[in-house]
Amino acid sequence: MARTKKTIEEKSIWDDARQMLRKAERDGVETAWDRLEHQTPHCNFCETGLSCRNCTMGPCRISKKAPLGVCGADADVVVARNFGRFVAGGSAGHSDHGRDCIEALHAVAHGLTQDYTIKDEAKLIRIANELGIATEGRQPLDIAKDLSAEFYANYGSLREELSFSCRVPEKRKQIWKDLGITPRGVDREIAEMMHRTHMGCDNDAANTMLHSARTCLGDGWAGSMIATEISDILFGTPSPRKSMVNLGVIKEDQVNILVHGHNPIVSEKIVEAVSDPELVALAKEKGATGINLAGLCCTGNELMMRQGIPLAGNHLMTELAIVTGAVELIVVDYQCIMPSLVTIGNCYHTKMVTTADKAKFTGAEHVKFEVHNGMAQAKKVVRMAIERFPLRNTNRVEIPQGPIEMITGFSNESLLASMGGTLTPLVEAIKAGKVRGAVAIVGCNNPKYQQDHCNVNLTRELIKKDILVLVTGCVTSAAGKAGLLVPEAIEMAGPGLKEICGALGIPPVLHMGSCVDNARILQLAALLANELGVDISDLPLAGSSPEWYSEKAAAIGVYCVASGIYTHLGHPPNITGSSVVTNLALEGLDSLIGACFGIEPDPFKAAELIDQRIKVKRQGLGLKP
Questions:
Q1: What average pLDDT does this structure show over 598-606?
Q2: Residue 438 forms beta bridges with which residues?
Q3: DSSP conformation class of 127
Q4: Helices 170-179 and 518-532, axial angle in degrees (round to 10)
Q5: Which residue has the higher pLDDT, 38 or 3?
Q6: What are the φ/ψ torsions at residue 158 (nearest 5 degrees)?
Q7: What 8-state DSSP symbol labels residue 354?
């Protein structure tokens, strides 16, 4: 099959991306789009989930000519096994992030670090009270000791349910109980998923898929939710603030440091270090006017919503940021980081620094961050960046102009505050049809799509229909660059949404954080369901990940569906080789758990699918569609 080479215009909808793609071609730099072309066409067995290499009797490929693997597993079993392992990987990623946050809270509580402190004591006390931990007359650090111990217990095997199951509507908990998918412990469900998919264990596809749901629920209602809540406690609960987005946030006359990954434990210390007077003076001594810090992907989201630090871009912008020729250092922690960043950095003067032992990259310099040395290591890293400024080749610097303003940081706390501390205004707006429903658009970029075409157009179509949109992760950059994350964007919304958002002074598209912060959306859905006395599946809500690529995105999709939220994906996971698994995902889950997946690559058609779903849910509540 002949390869089809995309034009630069077909690769991205953004001017800053196109400018850097042209520069990359001139500079002889290979990007993700080039590598995708080299990998095309993909293996059909892998794309449909019909290849199995779980033991050395194979690897096996299921086909009409060979319908059974060596062990006797058929297409349904092989596909279900592969999907189970796929979402176990995604659940492990976000949940291990949560474990790192627990370790930081534990260190603060036990006096093992002076670099990190509790920034939001009120939230610490509120969460402790919610989980039944005594707070009256106690010191914050003593409360934090008990809270960290409570959270640690969510990763073990001795519980019957997770701490934050207290947030789950009773009707939803009963559905989980009846199906046997109540999550018991993060690590327990992941380990059992790996056990079940070992040769000779679970060979019933539907049973395997139900445990996939249980595994992902452990991520959503524990791993991710714990990461979000602890990050707020340690670094501050986000509130609306202005920031800027696109590659124009990189400064030609300053030392540029980009932070990339997911864990604010690293990036929050970098924020402090770039303001150190001694380091600022050193930067000026080296010829720069100062030090500029910008974010990428989810670490960028974390800093942006708490500190207002500008966002250079999302997943497919990470390579292009380096192509500007003006980035001295890119500091990474883990997840969604392309190994190519080391190679592209070597084409310029950019050094890549890794900070987590679980995420080393060949060719990068490793500077290990731990809770007891975070500040010292941050200063070391910033000094490294400054020393590289004189190595910059000014003839190869090209920075797109015109960063775009956006409003970020809508935590549940800030949303409730904007409504006077109660959900009543939102509930009344939904009943009146001024806000017909809400959709969370989350997740990634994938070079198989024109970058952000689906993300942006789906968002625009939904707000036209008076549907509030919540965004997290890489979609945030897309919505911001499209001018959708400012109050003025209400002019693009339907009349009802325009009225409500105008009265509250908020955009029709709300930024709620990084990808772990989809847990905020779960909590908000549960609050609405409890307010109305219904199940989450009864609400006019949906989720969407139009351009997803990662195991984590699949895990998020599964925990949303298992929580009762219809979820749209731009393309299916690698399950289409099994009619049993595919039909379960697209239809069967609806009767079991009240939600299912919908697959549609066209954002305009996807908006119609979601709108029809919201109409049905509104009618079910006795509301006008």
A1: 98
A2: 468, 541
A3: H
A4: 110
A5: 38
A6: -100, -5
A7: E
Q: d(Cα 218, Cα 206) in Å, to the nearest integer?
A: 19
Conformational region of residue 220, where left means phi above 0, alpha means psi within -120 to 50, and beta covers everything else: alpha
For position 1, what pLDDT does the model report?
A: 39
Residue with tokens 């071609």: 25
Each residue's pLDDT tens digit, 241-254: 999 999 999 999 99
The DSSP letter of residue 296 is: E
What tokens were used for 177?
């109980």
Q: How far apart are CA 366 and CA 267, in angstroms?
A: 15
Neighbours of 74 (CB within 10 A): 15
Triad 617, 623, 625: Cα angle to 5°: 65
Q: According to the 3-state scheme, what is the secondary structure of 9-40?
A: HHHECCHHHHHHHHHHHHHCCCCHHHHHHHHC
Question: Hey, what are 126's tokens?
Answer: 């509120």
Cα separation, 304 vs 258, in Å, equals 13
Q: Is the peptide bond before 59 cis (omega within 30 degrees of 0)?
A: yes
Q: Compute the distance between CA of residue 101 and CA of residue 224 in angstroms, rounded to an integer.
A: 10
Do 348 and 360 contact (CB within 8 A), yes or no? no
Q: Which of left, alpha, beta for 459 (phi over 0: left; psi -120 to 50: alpha)?
A: alpha
468, containing H or E segment: strand 467-472
The span from the CA of 442 to the CA of 312, in Å, is 18
